[in-house]
Design brief:
The protein is built from twelve helices and eight strands. The chain is α+β, with helices and mostly antiparallel strands.
């Protein structure tokens, strides 16, 4: 009789008790199950869309939009396409996100440091700010800034006049427009040169301090480079720009640059709300630094300001940056609440107006989700790279 059974080493390789084999089988089964579910959902979705006459293609992208958008950073009018409307929404979302992150970071650091201040009033005001702002829903705060603060402002004819030709009314902030003239390019070159000089001198000053222990006037040189060089360029080329001031004509202003109340309300709400969380992150990061570091700095004669700036905060950043990244991501995603106050961000323009007019719900929502995913992942990658500069290096 011929023995057709597998050899012992082969049977042991394919044994059901082999953990590696079981893991491969389970993962393959899970992958196949997910593929089957995805295929079934896709097939059913396509079938339902065809039955209801919902478009399946992206042909709408080049069709005329036919609606107006009040705030546009790129050229757009009613004859523009849905694709151009999409880019307007993306630009507006990026604008409020970037400016909001900068303002929230500044406010958050100031409030967080103030919470640790020895000044009783400053500490209590900062604590009250954090406890009040972070415990009120963001949507209510946006509605408050828009409906209770900005919209009740006077009409254009009764605008509040501010210095510099700036007017404040219920249609926003109207300010002079800067128009570049001949020679403005040289001022731009001077600004770039000033930034390069400031960065180069800062790097040299750091190397010099490590070698000799002496500090160079980095702040003074930076100010001179960033302010002095552009001023010299302005004097050399004459007047590289002119201002166009807004004028009241009829019931509204003509000329000038307008900041719409929707943008202002969204920016203030996002910045103030996110700053309350950043303040707690900053406070926790500073308190996590050993008090011995502060005591040693004071023993060497460093004042409180330099101790905080040169000793405490650089070490605290290792703790602050990871949760700070999460708050930046939250601010970007929370900007989608702009639809409730009428700010033309990506959700309001593309997932709102474009979706309602085209009916391409699946395509529009897929693109919208993809954009937020790309922005969030890019922000996370940038912050991770920044975090590596302050991470402890093991020997």
């Amino acid at each position: 009789m011929v023995d057709i059974s597998l050899p012992m080493h082969v049977r042991s390789t394919f044994s059901i008790y082999d953990k590696k084999l079981r893991g491969i089988v389970y993962q393959a089964a899970l992958a196949v199950s997910l593929a089957v579910v995805l295929a079934a959902v896709t097939t059913q979705t396509v079938s339902n869309m065809k039955r209801r006459g919902i478009p399946l293609s992206f042909d709408f992208w080049k069709q005329t939009a036919g609606f107006q958008i009040n705030q546009t950073l790129i050229p757009y009018d009613t004859l523009s396409t849905y694709g151009q409307a999409f880019w307007v929404g993306v630009a507006n979302t990026l604008l409020v996100s970037v400016v909001g992150i900068v303002l929230a970071t500044i406010i958050g650091f100031l409030i967080g440091i103030s919470r640790l201040s020895k000044n009783w009033i400053a500490a209590k005001v900062a604590t009250s700010y954090v406890e009040v702002i972070r415990n009120i829903p963001l949507l209510l705060q946006l509605l408050f800034w828009y409906n209770a603060v900005l919209k009740p402002l006077p009409a254009p004819k009764a605008s509040i006049s501010l210095p510099g030709g700036i007017y404040l009314n219920n249609r926003g902030i109207i300010m002079p427009t800067v128009e570049l003239q001949a020679g403005a390019g040289w001022v731009g070159v001077a600004i770039v040169a000033g930034v390069a000089v400031a960065i180069a001198f800062g790097a040299y000053a750091l190397t010099f301090q490590k070698r000799t222990g002496k500090q160079l006037p980095v702040l003074l040189v930076t100010i001179l480079a960033l302010v002095g060089l552009p001023l010299l360029a302005c004097v050399a080329v004459g007047s590289p720009w002119t201002f166009t001031y807004p004028e009241l004509r009829g019931f509204n202003f003509r000329g000038g640059q307008q900041i719409y109340p929707e943008f202002a309300a969204l920016l203030i709400g996002l910045s103030v709300y996110t700053a309350s969380f950043i303040a707690e992150i900053v406070r926790g990061g500073i308190q996590a630094v050993s008090k011995g570091q502060t005591e040693a700095a004071h023993a060497l004669g460093l004042p409180q300001g330099k101790t905080l700036r040169l000793i405490v905060i650089p070490q605290a950043l290792r703790i602050i940056i990871p949760p700070l990244t999460s708050q930046y991501l939250n601010l970007i995603k929370n900007s989608s609440l702009a639809v409730f106050i009428g700010y033309p961000d990506l959700v309001q323009v593309f997932a709102g107006s474009v979706l309602n007019q085209t009916g391409a719900a699946v395509q529009v929502m897929a693109i919208t989700l993809g954009v937020y995913l790309v922005i969030s992942l890019s922000t996370s990658a940038a912050m991770n790279g920044f975090n590596q500069r302050f991470a402890l290096v093991e020997r």
